[in-house]
Amino acid sequence: xxxxxxxxxxxxxxxxxxxxxxxxxxxxxxxxxxxxxxxxxxxxxxxxxxxxxxxxxxxxxxxxxxxxxxxxxxxxxxxxxxxxxxxxxxxxxxxxxxxxxxxxxxxxxxxxxxxxxxxxxxxxxxxxxxxxxxxxxxxxxxxxxxxxxxxxxxxxxxxxxxxxxxxxxxxxxxxxxxxxxxxxxxxxxxxxxxxxxxxxxxxxxxxxxxxxxxxxxxxxxxxxxxxxxxxxxxxxxxxxxxxxxxxxxxxxxxxxxxxxxxxxxxxxxxxxxxxxxxxxxxxxxxxxxxxxxxxxxxxxxxxxxxxxxxxxxxxxxxxxxxxxxxxxxxxxxxxxxxxxxxxxxxxx
Length: 348
Known about the structure:
38% of the residues lie in helices and 19% in strands. The protein contains eleven helices and 13 strands. The strands form two sheets. Strands 1-3-2-4-5-6-12 form a seven-stranded mixed sheet, with helices on both faces. A six-stranded mixed sheet has the order 8-7-9-10-11-13, with helices on both faces. Helix 8 links the parallel strand 9 and strand 10. Helix 2 packs parallel to helix 9 and helix 5 packs parallel to helix 6. The protein is globular and about 55 Å long. The N and C termini lie far apart (42 Å). The relative contact order is 0.14.
């Protein structure tokens, strides 16, 4: 079967409609339009736009560039079960159409960017969450996920009444291990007697753990049945299932990547979302697009940590804002990490 990559042009007028349609699982009317006017592009990770998390954060950066820089943008969606050749074709197509920069959302794009970037030396290629592929026209946008996850661990340990909390990783890869390591360390440093239940949904090369909510829901239900009263899922779209499970049991969930309390697709469960570990993927996308527009493309490693508010904890839930003791503990931990009094592990 011939595979078709969806490429859409992002415009200011359609921005609000796009977010609404995505929350309902719909697509924009411009999905089949040509991207001739596009000058920046993002190729989505597993789960695509509408995951209420990682990909949606990247999309927000593209929207911001449209609004503030008047830079049009193109989007390209992944296909189910795709291989490296599909990613190579997708990035090549985006670059040939004149988009600059072309950004791969997620470490899975590393092999493809390694092949495509040298063929388009005048195009800047960005990759989020990977430093393995380098080149004179490659920007590596990476985050200290373990630091934000440490803060989530502090919060989880403080609010837990059972002393048992859960961590759910989408796919067992080094990146997600960083989330687990930071979270577990934060929990244990706050309550040495606490128990952390850890589980991964799939093993590579099966990346369903980032895209299937039912997997996250089943894993969370299992942890809740074992006494966990806080569940933190770093699992992309699958994490929404964990949030649903926690909500059904009247327990706490901790979101990831985006401020999931404010995601339209999760409105029904938002009261259960204590906080979210945020990654400033939006600004990383915007900043790279701006650097290209300004004629000074940023390349090499661009790291976002607590010191630059590149990662952190969201406080949108009014209930969280009332937890002054939790907030005080989190603020102290943040200050200690920035001051290097606490070194957060990057592997369990």
